[in-house]
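Notebook entry, structure prediction.
Reason for the run: the old model in the group folder had no record of what sequence produced it. Starting over properly, with the input documented here first.
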Amino acid sequence: MAQNYKITYSKSTNGSLLENQDAVLVYTNESNTLLTTQNIISQKAAFPFEQTYIDRKTSSILQIAKLHYKDIIKTMDSASLAKQTFEHLNDTKKILGYNCKKAKTIVNSNTIEFWYTDELKVKGSPTVLGQNLGLVLEMVRNGNFVIAATKVEKVKFFPQIEISINNVDGLTYKDLLWKSRFTTISVFKEQIINFSDASKSNDSILRFANGTIAVRKIKIPEIKLGSQIFVDITEESNGDAYDRTGSFFIIPTDKSNSFLEGLQKGVKSLPIYNNGNGKNYQGVVANENYNPVVELMRFFTPFGVKQYNTLQLKDKTWAENVLYRQDISEMRTMLSDKEVWLGINIGNYDKGGHKVTANITIHNEEEAKTKPNQIVPLFCTNNIMEMAGQEYGTMFNTDKGLIVTFKLDKPMKNVKLRYITTGHGGWENGDEFVPKKNSIFLDDKEIFSFTPWRQDCGSYRLSNPASGNFPNGLSSSDYSRANWCPGTVTNPIFIDLGDLEAGNHSIQIKIPQGLPEGNSFSSWNVSGVLIGE
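New structure, fully documented this time:
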């Protein structure tokens, strides 16, 4: 009977053992090798987990992943072991009493060294790499990450694994295993955002403003503190050729009035902000009875991606769509274990409009590195209901600009203003193309100022097939803009406000908004929430 061996390995980095590690185990004999872990063998491993089985007679690798209790997949690879190449070196040393030789290889720019022994007449390795060298007792990656054997022992049994499982190809296997490592919440799938009287609501998705807004209620599971939360949106033109403002947002409903009521009853039902310039701005600032929308992501469509890819230019291969992906982990408090209204908007007047898919993904972290926070919505001048009559953010044409007063029932520590700002006015002298300083005041004192500006817009040319080309050799999508580019996300900035006492406070935004010319005018879409402990 073939002798079975069990080898236990530990991992270390920069000379220090990794904390709370799950020991790597290799079971091997002349015919078979199993790569597993201590938690898997003791049935304590969290899903998903993976084991690797090597059939020495056929030099094939069988990878088996258990995604959930009854969800198991496998893939077979009979070629890759033979393709592994190594440089055999003259170095030798003893590990756990066994004489070892040295080999090395380079994978994806990583130098990996192997110390292996032939003395036990079996083969195995703590990873798929090096399985045919001999029995690998130590692996060193880039000189600082080490997987080293701590014990080699003879055992009577060889763990049995279930191999009568439906086989999938290698790429599908990797994809299913990867996706099982995080939670995906589908919010919108191939949703049309257009301008048409024919745009109607259904049982799950509500349409407003002639179809330019889609809203639905979603139950979000509990999100562990410290987890990473992402939004991803895929967009393509379904007819509209222009660069448009887009927003993915939450509608707070914790007060007696909400933006949802404005969508359902009309913009006149929203509270008015007036700064003396003669215009009424609906639903842009918080008050004791209302919270404005909270933008999770501000994005901008490119000029006609996919729909206008027939507009050919030499040496340019247009993108098929645009993917926007943003970390929104700081918004956990508004999402975790809640039923929330989520919406998406692209301002446009095109019957075909745009097609979007939006997801929220939740990625658990092993250690919580953040503290619980509270979020206070303050303002949003992005006129999401533009096609239903909501006023543009033109309140910055007076010195008062935008001011919101708010009351804290208890103190907040380490407060930050999560601030998104983009300038608009698409002609030569419009604020879209003219840098303008944004000044932020807390309780009548200026605490921060900066000039929001993007100079990398030319990087996204291949997403903009319908962008107009000018005699100077530039295309419209190349031009620098007021904190946005066609085909990009505009990231929030986080402005430190320090500790705030309980009681009344005010935030004021001042921007030297440009004057109108003819029928053209400038506006600013700014939104902000307080985040603190």
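Summary: The chain has a mean pLDDT of 96.
The old model has been moved to the deprecated folder.
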